[in-house]
Amino acid sequence: MPMHPDSHDLHTVERLRQLERAALAVPGMTGQELMRRAANAALNSLRRHWPEVRNIVIHCGPGNNGGDGFLLGVLAREAGLQVELTALTGASQGDAAVARQAWVAGGGCVQVVDDDDTLPTAELHVDALYGIGLHRAPEGKAARLIEQINGSGQPVVALDVPSGLDADTGHCAGAAIRADVTVTFIAGKRGLHTGRAADHVGVLELATLGVPDSVYADVAPDARLLRAEILPRRPRYANKGDNGHVLVIGGEHGMAGAARLAGEAALRGGAGLVSVATRAEHVFALNATRPELMVRGVDGPQALAPMLERASVLAVGPGLGQAEWGRALWLAALDANKPLVLDADGLNLLARQPRRFSVPAILTPHPGEAARLLGVSTSEVERDRFAAVRELSRRFGAVAILKGSGSLIADPDGRLDVCPWGNPGMASGGMGDLLTGIVAALLAQGCSAWQAGCLGVGLHARAGDRAAQHGERGLLASDLLAPLRALGNGVHDGERDHD
Ligand SMILES: NC(=O)C1=CN([C@@H]2O[C@H](COP(=O)(O)OP(=O)(O)OC[C@H]3O[C@@H](n4cnc5c(N)ncnc54)[C@H](O)[C@@H]3O)[C@@H](O)[C@H]2O)[C@@H](O)CC1
Ligand SMILES: [K+]
């Protein structure tokens, strides 16, 4: 059955090339025709976003992305705009050369960029420097031009990909365009949705260029964007025993807050019962401030054993520490062979004592923890977040959630989802503890590890966005608890969440 081009489908560059080849095999479809349609889509977007703009500068690179730029020049001039055009090279090849010729034949000038050029002035810049063919950091005059465009203070429209951003990974090895709008062609690219992408892409629009559905049928996407979902409905006759019992293990001396937040998030995520095993000194405070939590002081594995027995899902790591107390509880928890979520020091201990899980398990590292688990540097993780999260999942036999802008969720079968929500206000203490609690609650309510990971990440990020409507700076993890409950139940408070 033909697969429809779905804006939630995300492809690698390799698969985009396959799609391009298949599109070019469609009768009547040529490289020039696709390029013309790409230019037309970009012009429509530009005029929709900036109807007042009268003069633009288009910056063209050496490949077909530059070709899109030349044809945009032709169409924009026909539409009555004043167009200046710069090119990184004195000549172009293939389809781009034909497009360049069309621009010149219509009387257009090409200003070949020189080392000491100043940026032409315009109301808007179009970035047609590099698309999916970028294979290293822009250098020399290309890097300088990118910095000049970014520094111009004028709006920027990127064609296909903001130049300098790796369409495969979302990594920037050097200078990269910060676009206001990116019009991407044919299909979604996974690198536009994670890592550094959020600071470069701006508003993202997909133009499929009239490529027929049949072309998409043979090329499976590599990843998918999460969709907004609510929690599974529960029967009216449910009792608390039906909704699972989460045990949070954490809260070393001075770290009660982490265990409390994870526990509270598990309650708000719908777990039937939530226990907390922590240091004895925290028991009174936690019981007094959140009486729904069943808090016990444990001094070691023996005291933990009956709690492990009663729990259906374990959330191991919030504020746990890596000293003898934490390590002994961690070991006892893993040996209990119950479905579990590992976070924070639960992951750091796993890095020191790796094992593969035979129970449903979810790991929720940030890039630093992921690096420790994989034995690489944090920058290596960030260079290819997709590869890192897949390797974590494969190596540990668990669903892995790689946190950060555009969180990724992977399972050992190779499935990979990308979270389109969240904001920098969520880069603050306690946010990870919340995610741990939510995901544990979903596991406890009968979700598979994969479902719990995807649903939990989505709810957490959307709750963060809703809470940030009052400002990103100063956002507290506990601000997310009320929106989390509302979103999980499909309750809207008058605002629409983007899907
Ligand atoms: N082929 C097709 O079917 C279509 C292609 N389209 C456009 O074509 C683009 C892909 O074109 P290309 O494959 O030509 O690739 P690009 O135009 O993205 O860039 C490739 C060119 O840049 C050079 N290059 C890459 N990184 C560099 C660096 N860091 N420093 C200096 N030079 C560097 C390469 O050697 C090559 O000459 C897409 O992103 C899209 O914009 C669109 O026209 C739609 C249809
Ligand atoms: K570009």
TrEMBL record:
PROSITE patterns registered for this protein in UniProt: YJEF_C_3, YJEF_N
Positions bound to K(+): N65, D127, S163
SUPFAM superfamilies: Ribokinase-like, YjeF N-terminal domain-like
Coiled-coil parts of chain: none
YjeF N-terminal domain boundaries: 16-217
Catalytic activity: (6R)-NADHX = (6S)-NADHX; (6R)-NADPHX = (6S)-NADPHX; (6S)-NADPHX + ADP = AMP + phosphate + NADPH + H(+); (6S)-NADHX + ADP = AMP + phosphate + NADH + H(+)
Annotated cofactor note: Binds 1 potassium ion per subunit.
UniProt entry keywords in alphabetical sequence: ATP-binding, Isomerase, Lyase, Metal-binding, Multifunctional enzyme, NAD, NADP, Nucleotide-binding, Potassium
Binding site for AMP: K403, G404, S405, G406, S407, G432
Entry keyword annotation includes Isomerase: yes
Cofactor requirements of the protein: K(+); Mg(2+)
Matches recorded under InterPro entries: CARKD, Nnr, Ribokinase-like, YjeF_N_dom, YjeF_N_dom_sf
Residues annotated as domain YjeF C-terminal: 223-491
Entry superkingdom: Bacteria
List of residues binding (6S)-NADPHX: 64-68, 131-137, 160, 258, 319, 366, 433
Function: Catalyzes the dehydration of the S-form of NAD(P)HX at the expense of ADP, which is converted to AMP. Together with NAD(P)HX epimerase, which catalyzes the epimerization of the S- and R-forms, the enzyme allows the repair of both epimers of NAD(P)HX, a damaged form of NAD(P)H that is a result of enzymatic or heat-dependent hydration. Catalyzes the epimerization of the S- and R-forms of NAD(P)HX, a damaged form of NAD(P)H that is a result of enzymatic or heat-dependent hydration. This is a prerequisite for the S-specific NAD(P)H-hydrate dehydratase to allow the repair of both epimers of NAD(P)HX.
Family label: In the N-terminal section; belongs to the NnrE/AIBP family.
Assembly notes: Homotetramer.
NCBIfam families documented for this protein: yjeF_cterm, yjeF_nterm
Protein name per UniProt: Bifunctional NAD(P)H-hydrate repair enzyme
UniProt organism field: Rhodanobacter umsongensis
Lineage of source species: Bacteria, Pseudomonadati, Pseudomonadota, Gammaproteobacteria, Lysobacterales
GN (gene name): nnrD
